[in-house]
Amino acid sequence: MSCPNLSRLQSLWAEAPVALSWHFGSGAGAAWNVVLGQRSQLALEKAGVLQEVLDRSVELLGEMAVSGQGRDVLTEYPFKALCISEASLSDTLVSAGMQRYPRHIRYHFSHRCTGVDFNTNGAVFVSEASSDAERMASSAIVVKKSPPADLLVGADGANSTVRMGMMSHAPMFGFSQLFHPDQLYKAVRVALRPGSVGPDRRAVHAQRRQALLQLSDAVGEQVVCQLLPNLDRSYALVLSGRALLHCPQTDQIRELFHSALPEVALLIPDATFGALAAAPLLTFPSVSCSRLHHNGAVLIGAAAHAMFPDMHISTDAGIADCIALAERLRESGGAQSTGRLRGALRALSAERLPAAAAAAGLARAATPAQGRPLESALARLRWGVLMRCSSDLRSLALLPWELKLLGTSASYTDVQRWRSQEAFLLAGLLLCGASTAVYLLLLLTGQLSAASMCPSALSRSLDWLHGAFPAGSKLWVALAAAVGDARKAVLGKLSTLV
Ligand SMILES: Cc1cc2nc3c(=O)[nH]c(=O)nc-3n(C[C@H](O)[C@H](O)[C@H](O)COP(=O)(O)OP(=O)(O)OC[C@H]3O[C@@H](n4cnc5c(N)ncnc54)[C@H](O)[C@@H]3O)c2cc1C
Questions:
Q1: Domain ranges in the chain?
Q2: What's one GO BP annotation on this UniProt entry (predicted)?
Q3: Which end of the chain is more exposed for a tag (fewer CB within 10 A), N or C?
């Protein structure tokens, strides 16, 4: 997005007339659905488009895991989850912009950005051919340069052209990306075979609540198939995993389904295999940058910090960037000043980068397929411990599914806080380990006898505590209240379990 005049942009945030232009790629291949958790819904509400999204999405009941031996397990989401096609979500956001600012934003669809000029904040675009005939006639391809602008916003996804420009022009621009072989996707939209019992029938709850069918299996390599419902009873079929590398042809995909995913093969029409073979192979890298801005250009969304879309993180991170950018620009005042604009972009970088890095860590830990099994188990354990220890004493009694709820609803500030408390936790654990080792050493070398150590150490500690904090002091009152609180929480949980 390029904005010709900053003061006018600032007035847009204040709901006054403004001229903006948006450029879009063709968006071809966006056939997948996204699942939006509580955090995403809060972000959409803050952006004022939640109702529009609700009207176009299906409320998911949970995930139906099909084992292959006929034992299907439905895990209900412990939170409200919305399922919407990526195309509908983009369309909803663009339509909302068009309705709210009908005369002030110019949209240029089917234009691909091929380069950026950071001196003028202008961008070079080529118009994309919409048909084969157009593609054949080279005259149909038009190269355009956008006029100079005060601000250039790169929201062009994980393989961002604006970011590539920053990598070659911005000094000290650090960047890293990680491709995981299991993060390969193909997505198509399917209508299930007439008469087949679709995954929606497996849901047992109220109208418009449907289940997500998830099936994992392997033919040497892992393959995961997800069917995500749309309002019109069609499904987004997302096939992922490294097995896709070995199945480029229709027949190979058909064979893959019949051998590894027979339940899904029964549900989908034969034409789906051809559509999957023709669909582009998508990769979803995890991306991190050392900063988000250069001169008057800024990166937001997946362009700035693409992350594996687990724990329903990703869409919300992009919307959180937009909200933060709007706030920083509003704070920077109405005057048209390059210095203030750059200050606002610097502040945005400082605010959003650590939060996004922490969220990306949480998303990685939540993906069971990531890394070696021991590594990912340790990462999940680490986040579990962090969430429990950092929330408050009450969270010590959290049950595993409540951890998921907490992870998908916590604010970015919370996620960041958990991450920063990790150092303290680690230091505490190391201290405990070191003192235990010293005691063991003293015991083993005979410097200390177990019989004499325990009572004397304990009574000395208690004497010190009594001296330092006499009965009735604030510490004891707070401790007693916290223990009572935890007891109540545990008893509450026990009664629901029984
Ligand atoms: C299979 C799959 C499942 C996912 N599931 C979830 C989920 O459950 N929950 C969730 O929150 N997120 C999910 N995501 C991520 C989500 O779809 C978005 O990709 C993510 O939120 C990033 O959004 P974005 O707007 O920053 O980038 P994108 O969604 O990638 O949008 C970038 C836009 O820029 C355009 N563009 C790109 N390059 C150019 C160019 N050179 N010139 C002009 N325009 C360009 C593209 O056409 C597109 O319109 C999933 C992604 C995939 C692939």
A1: 449-498
A2: kynurenine metabolic process
A3: C
Counting atoms of ligand 1 from 1, which one is nearest the CA of 317? 21
**Is residue 26 a contact partner of residue 111, using CB atoms and an 8 Å limit?**
no
Share of the chain above pLDDT 90, in %: 22
Three-state DSSP class for residue 311: coil
Tokens of 261: 């995913």
Q: How far apart are CA 187 and CA 209, in angstroms?
A: 22
Nearest to 24 by CA among 215, 203, 154, 182: 154
Contact present, 386 and 422 (Cβ < 8 Å):
yes
Q: What span, in angstroms and rounded, lies between the C-alpha atoms of 269 and 254?
A: 11
Please state at what angle helix 271-278 crosses helix 250-260, rounded to 10 degrees. 120
Terminal Cα distance for the chain, rounded: 56
Distance 89 CA to ligand 1 centre (A): 10
pLDDT-derived band at 305, boundaries 50, 70, 90: very high
Nearest CA to ligand 1 atom 22: 302
40, HSE (Cβ side, Cα atoms, 13 Å): 23
Q: Which residue has the tokens 């033919």?
A: 219
E strand or H helix that includes residue 112: strand 111-117
The DSSP letter of residue 146 is P
Residue scoring higher pLDDT (349 or 223): 349
Atom 16 (ligand 1) nearest CA: 315
Higher pLDDT, 302 or 477: 302
Is the Cα torsion angle 473, 474, 480, 483 positive or negative in sign? negative
Radius of gyration of the chain (CA): 27
What are 283's strand-pairing partners?
A: 184
Give the pLDDT confidence score for residue 333 in this predicted structure.
74
- Tell me whether strands 184-190 and 175-178 are parallel, antiparallel or unpaired: unpaired
Residue 113 in tokens: 């950005």
Interface predicted TM-score (ipTM):
0.97
Structure tokens at 213: 């069918």
Rounded CA gap, 94 and 86, in Å?
12
Task: Compute the distance from residue 302 Cα to the ligand 1 centre, in Å.
Answer: 7
d(CA 302, CA 321): 10
| 147 has a pLDDT exceeding 80 | yes
Ligand 1: list residues with CB < 6 Å: 23-25, 27, 32, 34-35, 40, 86, 112-113, 155-158, 161, 185, 187, 238, 282, 284, 301-302, 309, 312, 314-315, 318
Residues 111, 64 contacting (CB under 8 angstroms): no
* Residue 330 in this model has a pLDDT that exceeds 60: yes
CA distance 143 to 153: 20
